[in-house]
Design goal:
Length: 357
Amino acid sequence: MIYTFDDIVISGFSAVTAAGNGIEAVLELLRSGRDALSPVPDDVPGGNGQRWGKALGFKASDFMPPLKARKLDRCSQFAVGASGLALKDAGIDPKEIIPERIGIALGCGFGGVANSAEFLGGYFKGGVEGLAPVLFPNTVSNAPASNASIEHGLKGPNVTLVQRFCSAESAFVMACRFIAEGRADVMLTGGADDLTPLMITGFDATGQLRRYAACFGEGSGILVLESAAHAARRNAPVKATVETVAAIGLFPAGHERDGADRLFSGAEQCDLISLSGIVGDAPPLMERVGGRAVTDIAPVLGRSLAMGGTAMATLLASLKPGHQGLHLAASPEGPYYAIRFTGGATKASDPRDPGKV
């Protein structure tokens, strides 16, 4: 399936990662040739010899009052922080926009796992009396998107998608559709995930730690999407435009190269490619990447199910005006995504009034 968009722009983006707060921290890390990974503590079952990308420098109190931060799970804190930074980058004050016209579509993998474990642990240890009601709202994967919308006053569409390593990309497509269908003027989208020792132990128990969960990371990457008309009305700078999204559910055995050809259709001249998920483990895709310029944040920040938001933000921050960028994402059993952008750094124009800037 191929979606074509001609009136959606990106006016802002940011991230909270193991590198620090903001996309510039990620770019500096990539330029340095270093990484932000640290050893998994020895007392974590299954973590011996592993490394992970913990956002050790993140302080929720930098983004919200401490008492409010204490009520949120760590994944929600990431989403609130990254959303605020992205809105600031876009020059948007949600209070100046009709609340029902700005929403959020977020990808999430393991948000709520830590709170779920603590909540259920109370029940197993003390029965019903051992349950802590304050934990329950943050035991679900849609808590980060919901808490971000509450904190920033977003009353438009609010959805969360969990689709393994392509969670953020699936959320991106839905955010674009909300704008294209006229259901929102502005959408925040991307991904959020946090790391817990329980995850490492779980992946180890299922035999997937070293294949899919090695060097896992945490954080949140958020993009601000707008209709071109809305961005033009507020005279907003455009960081990039969304061109097409190609998606394939899976590569049928024996037709892997046909699938790769479909994903790369129209993107032959791309100037920069970003990778997310397990693209590196998909030979047909890597063959098409060839010797093109590539940015891959996984080796420096760690991989997560919702890392696509940070990967796309990093791509856009590296993309020169007028240049073509391609974001590739893949999960072990599918789906596969190819999202094409054009670098911006211009003022938005209303497609309904070509003479208006």
